[in-house]
Amino acid sequence: MGSRAFALYVQAHYLYLKGACGPSAGLVEGVLSMGAARYPIPSIYLHLVAVMDYMSLKQTDKARAHLLAAWEIARPDDLIEGFGEHHGLLGGMLESVIKPGWPEDFKRIIDITYRFSAGWRKVHNPVTEDTVADGLTTTEFAVCMLAARGWNNPAIAQHLHISLATVKRHLSSAMQRLHVSRRSDLQKYMLQ
Hints:
This protein has eleven helices and no strands. By secondary structure, it is mainly α. It folds into two domains: 1-79, Alpha Horseshoe (Serine Threonine Protein Phosphatase 5, Tetratricopeptide repeat); 92-192, Winged helix-like DNA-binding domain superfamily/Winged helix DNA-binding domain (Arc Repressor Mutant, subunit A). Helix 6 runs antiparallel to helix 7, helix 8 crosses helix 10 (164-178) and helix 9 (153-160) crosses helix 10 (164-178). It is globular, with a radius of gyration of 16 Å. The protein starts with a helix and ends with a helix.
């Protein structure tokens, strides 16, 4: 079941990338309900793709529940690599949930994020050939991902536990670096 669970994570991630977040979340929920929890690493990855799905569907309570479930599995054995690998797709959930409760672990996750993404950044958006992540901080990246998914500034501020002015500053700075003048243009950089 462990290797099958991981294969189903890959399928769910593929569905997420195709924009089929509902079917992806359903696949994850089904796999988890069939006993995947006995296998910690696939379970962590399955919960993380569920976070991605539910954030895209703007169901933050479900996303938070899956993030905390993954964290509960990962933390005792320090299996935090997956959190760093998925940072940009988690819609600011690490900043919202992990950073306030476990600030030292959050710093380690961000270190993993930067190490993991060094090569990935070069091919982030093959359609536009842009290296979006290179010039952005992890918080700017999270703010841009949420904005690209249609979140408004007050919702982003509330979700990330930062002020509205901070959201505006991060968004403005990121858009300037990306040479983007409209929020709608963020989609081609962040979601392609």
